[in-house]
Design a protein that fits this description.
Helix content of chain B: 55-70%
Radius of gyration of chain A: 19 Å
Strand content of chain B: 5-15%
Oligomer: heterodimer
Number of helices of chain B: 49
Number of domains of chain A: 1
Shape of chain A: elongated
Strand order of the largest sheet of chain B: 5-4-8-7-6
Structural class of chain B: mainly alpha
Amino acid sequence: MNLLISNDNKLNYYDENLDQTENKITVLSRQLKTYLNYRESTILAICRESENSLDILKNHSIQKWETELNILYLEYCIFLEKYIGPKENLKMNVLMLAKKALSFPNSPEARSFKKFLKNKIRLWELLHILSALEIHTRPQLLKRVIQILTKLCNDESKLNANVPDFFQQLKLNYQQLEREYDQLLLTKGKVQIKSKNTNKKVMVRE
Amino acid sequence: MIDTKNQATRKGLKGDRVAVCPKFGCSTLEKLKPLKLGLFGIQKYPKCKDHKIHLVFVDEFIGDFLQSVNACLFDNSIAPPKALLELVKEESPKNLLSVYHKWMYCSSLGRGAKIVPGYLDSLSRAYKNSLNKRQKKSIENDSYIKKRNKLITLGFRKIEMEYIEFLKKLYDMNERLFNKEEIKPFPRLVKKLIQDWLIKFLKNINKGYLQNKQINNSDSISLKKTKYDKILQARTCMLILGRSPSELPIKISPYELFATYRIFLENDLCHEFVPEENNLKIGSRKEYFLQELNNNNSKVGNIKEINRNTSFILKNWGEYYGVIYILIDNNKDNTLKYKMLYIGQTIQKLKIRFYSHINYSPNKYLREAFGMYGKKFSLLKIDNKTLQTTGGEFTMKVIKKCKDLDNLNKYEKFFIKKYKSCVLDHYFIGKDGKRRPLYGYNISRGGGGFPAITGEEHGSFIHIDQDSLKDLLKRGFSAEEIAREFEISIPTLISKVEYYWKHLGIENLRDARAKFGGNQAFLDRFGIVAKSVIGVELDIPKLIDLIEQGLFLSELEEELGTSFSTITKHLQKIGFKNLTDARIRLGAMETFRKRWIQKKASATLRGSDHQDYIQINKEEIIKIIKLDMSPKEIADYFGVSRPTILSRLNEYWGVNFYEAKRLFKIYPKVDKILGENIISSISECAISDIDIIYLQSLIYAGFNMTQIALIYERGVKWMHEFMTEILDIDFTPHMYFQSAKDLFYWKPRIINAIMADYKISDVVRELHVTTYFRELGRIWKKEYDEFNQNNDNLYKYLKRFYLFYPFMDKKLLINLIAENKSSTEIDEEYKRKWGVYGYTDSEYHKFLRRCIFVYNKINNDYLNQLFIKSTSARDIDIAFLKILLRNTSTMQEIAEKLQIGIVQTRKFLINILGINYKEAVREFVWKPELFSYIEKYDSISDIAHNEDYNLSTLRHRFRVIWADELKKLGSLKKVYRHLKEKF
């Protein structure tokens, strides 16, 4: 069993037009679709005027996904930190762990590893779902999601045995999107921490 | 459609390969096998059965498709329409660049990039379905590749490469097409402008060709392309207005769009957009502005002719009060790095203002700039808004006309800020160590204009009788009264007083009154009025005296020991509108103005403008602070005094020495320890806020007081005092750190666990706390007491508070918190909302869980609708049970969905619906279904025949459901007729 590949096998996508399975063939178009969705969300986040009451209603439906995303991403990071170690050897370490998990399927490490794979699938699923929602009404969340996507694509470019080059390029595109978003949201008006003492200001950027 | 020459053939095929119909949108896809012995077999050139055209290999087809997509997304026509640019240029030229770059930023998405993956997705799925297990496996894993499947695997690799190329193309074009820095939010005016333009544009599109919402086939290809481009421009325009292009009434199907662009491409009508060429037309803000000036120059044409026209003195500003102008040092002698700007306001003619700058400018930088050329300048009129020195050294141009003084001041400030022309904000330090202007010559930030009388009413033109004036002053008349008497302005009056009696030491009306004996009469007049109206709360004569001395508001407040509103109130009672009105009418405006200018001048000489100012390099001072040197040692290092160092720290960053040490030494260290970069994420905030952020982060990371003190390089006692001051927490002294830890370490963790739906036992285990879990009681003390100090009940409440209630009605929760309601009251309020008074606590909790974890997954929208309608809990349960009954076939399935056991499900059904599972199925599944059939068909056999039902099953269901009717009527036929009639 190739654990690195089979992690994409049991998916249940939000988008009802999609297959029950996502494999090498459909992952490309699926990821491209998500990327372009986020790109449009970024444009809308930058160009829209202000939050209206309708947006707040829409936010309500996004909120439930956000909480799950936060928890899953945290667990994902913790696992990588705890079991995988330095990123330079990411692929090798994951392969070692996969082998260990196959040899001792009931060990705690194997269980954690299975949970990690499961989390990763769900994480991608959530990111696809969020791309289809009106996430531009939540600029901070949108930024965080783009950051998460950049990191995941980076990891996938090392872990995904099928289409590493695709994920590598996708990572660059997300990084570009993040840069644009930072720059453009900055010009739109950055949210600043409110100061209690308005007289004493510290100019950190000089 | 792609008219590709690469039609798929089975001839010479060495393995399986997948082919597709080249008509975009057609779902025909076939797996082609090689001919037997390379010769035998039918359909050597397979065709699409629907479109009767040859199939093409899918990997080649995707390449062709993406080529068409690129042709569409990055065509030369992606630039914004000229008409729109012209409009923006005319109405709001400063936003022109922003519009252009924003348009380019939105272009690829606006032109339909988003519909590409939709098509590719369906193609991929069809492709996948056409493969057998082995072929799929060969794609998934290289080790399974067999010779027969090699072409499929290679084909797939080609597809992957096409995807990567497409992403690369998007990346490259995004880097090249626009300048991020130029994209700024539009003012409402521009947005409105674009909206109006779009409405007109859409009308034109509709009028022009899309009456049937279809492009006419008889159109020539180039005409067709123009039309398509217009639609795509409208879609892009929607995006820059922050709306989705799909909201546009004009639709083109994705297949049609890219197929048509394929045709354009083949007819050589598509050319990739070259950003550099087009950007040159716009350039940077400054370039654009300067280019504008040059354009105006070129319009002038014959300069000699203009030179002959000496009567170019501009007229007054008509209905406008004054103008904002920009004076540009064109850097003709190449001594500057940039062209320098000066923004000013004037109510005079532009020419007079220009000459006043040239001949006697009070601004030293402007004096230097004009003086550099060492010659006399003469002026040349370019147009009614622009003047230039004949040698082209300086240009003055009107950039804004204003209707009143307030606007004049407002826009002066605005433009100085916009063009960064104030030397106080944008400067560099010259070789002589003095501040030099970087972009512009303004020495103040603008907005300091005063009301003044202009034109014919100028003081030097008017003669008034000296004796009459003296008489009026003696009688105690005010400046306004005297001015009205002589029909002159107040400044004229003051200038006359000064002119007539300057030799007597008189400079203003107050001096004159004091000299000629009118002071008492004047004070009495106003004092009597004041006393009669509002009593003696404020010394009115003193107030008037102080106003006449030209005191500022703050000085008045201090002198009289009262507030601005009291002063204004008293002034209004004695007949003045406000303080400014009083100043004008009492003739104190000139004195006030002089004092104000003096203050302003002295203000600009502070700090770095002061001759004795010592510049200290910021970077260097940061480096030294990091070396852990004391202020005295730092002062010695720079060869200055200790106060100088401290004042520079305050000037540069608004901090004292210890705050600077934390900022530049301690906090970067904390960032390293925590593996974060907090300092760079803070753009501008007070040091106390930064302290709070770092302290909270350290406590959250689990450091204890001693460790934090070590990080801060201080003792525990100091740390305790520091934390007390910074973290404003209600605490008992000896429990301080525990209180802080409760708030910043435990609380966020517990809330996270609650949000993740952890049980209390899980939290105890995960957070390694004792089973007593005292933190809960300490953090939520009020609630803890309300729940009789029971941890379990409190935790359940917290779960409701943080997880369930926000999900169900966040607004209500916010209102209740704002009203400072207790936990019981919050619970009561929610219970009332869902009408769950009969429920036990456990049932209530189960209902909330069902909503979030079961009903929400089944149909979130429906659940939200029920919440909005404030449907009762029982009705919500009934509604979703009906859905479950319809969508499942056994009770086991319902139990699984509800995440409870079979016995509990049975009880739940009886409790909620009042009937058992079988009855519920009859009532809520069979009965509605049969009713719908009875409405449509005339007999039971008809239903069985048309709806593919087993007749005996159907009869059984009728018998069971309408058993009573059957008893009464005797036969099913009669029952059926009866039911039909009932309808």
